[in-house]
Each structure stands twice: as C-alpha cells, then as structure tokens.
Amino acid sequence: MRKEGGERLRRGERYILLVLWIATTGFIGLMIAASWPDYWRYVASETAPLAWLESVLLLLTAFVAGLMAFTENASGGSRKAGLSWAVMAAAFVWLSLDERFALHERLRDRFLKPTGFRLLPWMEAGDWIIPLYAVCGLAAVWSIWRLLGRNRTARYFFAAALLLAFCAVAMDTINIRELDKDTERLLQSVEEVLETIAMASFLSAFLCVWTRKIGGLIHQAQGLGKAEFTRGPDVL
After folding, report:
1. CA 142 to mean position of chain CA atoms
2. What are the pLDDT digits (tens) for 11-42?
3. Global confidence as pTM
4. Cβ of 14: how many Cβ atoms within 10 Å?
C-alpha cells in the first residue's frame, strides 16, 4: 500500500511538472510566433507579455515556498527550516513585484544612473542592482541546497536554474545602448527567455520538495491511523 501510494505521488508530481513546462515553453513559442518576424516584440521588453509570465512564475515560487514554511511549522518540523522557507517566499515576492513593475529599472534610471558610476567597464552607468541580486542569491545558494534535502530531482532543477540565471545576469550587465538595434533585440530576447526558463526551474525544484514533503506527511498519517486501528480503542 505504501509503495503504491508513493508511486501515485511521483506520478502526480510528474504531471504537475509536465503541465508547468508545456505551459511555459508553449507561451514562449506562442509569443515569438504571434509577432514573427518581429520576434522580439512580445519577448524583449520589460512590459512585454513574457515579463508578465516571469512575474507569475516568481509569485508561484513564492507561494510554494510559503506552503513549505507553513507545512514545516504545522507538522512540527524544524523552526529554522520554516523560517528559511518564509524568507525565501518573501524574496520571491519582491522579485515578482520587481519583474512586474520594473522597480530596479526605475531606481537605476532615476537615482543611480545620474551618478555616472559603472560597476564594470562594459556595464551601463548606475546598473548595480542586478549584480547585487546575484550576490545575494549566491550567498543563499548553500542554504537553499540544504533545504532541498536529498531530493535529486529538485537539486537538478535548482542547479539548472542557477546556471540559466547566471547566464541571464551576465547578459544583463552588457550596455545594450552601445549595440546596434538588431543585436540589442536579439540579446534582450535571449536574456528574457533564459530568465523565464530559470524561473520555471526554480518553481519546479520547490514543487518537487513540497510534493515529497506532503507525501511523507500523508504516509505518516496513514501509518498512525493504521496503528490506532490495530491497537483498538482504550478500555476504561
């Protein structure tokens, strides 16, 4: 019975991931096809439909992290793990708001760009916030890796997300205003697609951890119920 329940859980996890990736890749393909040959129109801009999808993926990731925080606390798990998941939920909510309302771009253009300071020679003046996000993310990598536990699927997705996010951040540091228009559009389009896939990978990693956590709690509850049934009622 336990083995059968575990197989059903894994099958349900695969279905969830399949739907997520079909929806993500399908949306990207649809946006490119809908504007072809101007492939960048619904992809490259910070106000394009693809940016909306990115904000949704980030918000869903925050929601799953919040569920993990609640589950850890409600099931009597580690308080430290529950707090870590709560912090991650808050971080992904912020990233979702940033993506939806272009907050770091507004801060850069209004306050940082007038300083004229370049963090690296090839970067645009005042473009410091994305590298700062990257540094904060790298500082949290080991803690998140430990939270994923021994779930190999979650760790594969997380490693892929890190690699894709690194590539996207590296591309974001390039000063696109020094490029010709065609190269700028191509670079921005590739960057946004990489960001979207990275966000879907983060969400996949967290979903894997959550489904396994819920499965473990279900099995534990079933085991307790069976023990109570076998023992029978207390006799006064």
Report:
1. 16
2. 888 999 999 999 999 999 999 999 999 999 99
3. 0.87
4. 12
Which residue range(s) make up the domain with 205? 2-213
Which residues, at least 6 apart from 96, have a Cβ–Cβ distance to it below 8 Å?
55, 56, 58, 59, 62
Q: What is the DSSP string of 176-217?
A: GGGS-HHHHHHHHHHHHHHHHHHHHHHHHHHHHHHHHHHHHH
The CA–CA distances, whole Å, from 78 to 67, 209, 215 equal: 14, 15, 17
**Segment holding 30, helix H or strand E:** helix 2-35
Number of domains in the chain: 1
Residue 225 lies in a domain: no
Largest CA distance in the chain: 86
Cis peptide before 121 (omega within 30 of 0): no
Q: What is the CA radius of gyration of the chain?
A: 22
In a domain, 143, yes or no: yes
Residue 121 within a domain? yes
Domain-located, residue 231: no
CA distances from 92 to 65, 98, 137, 203, 217 (A): 9, 10, 11, 10, 26
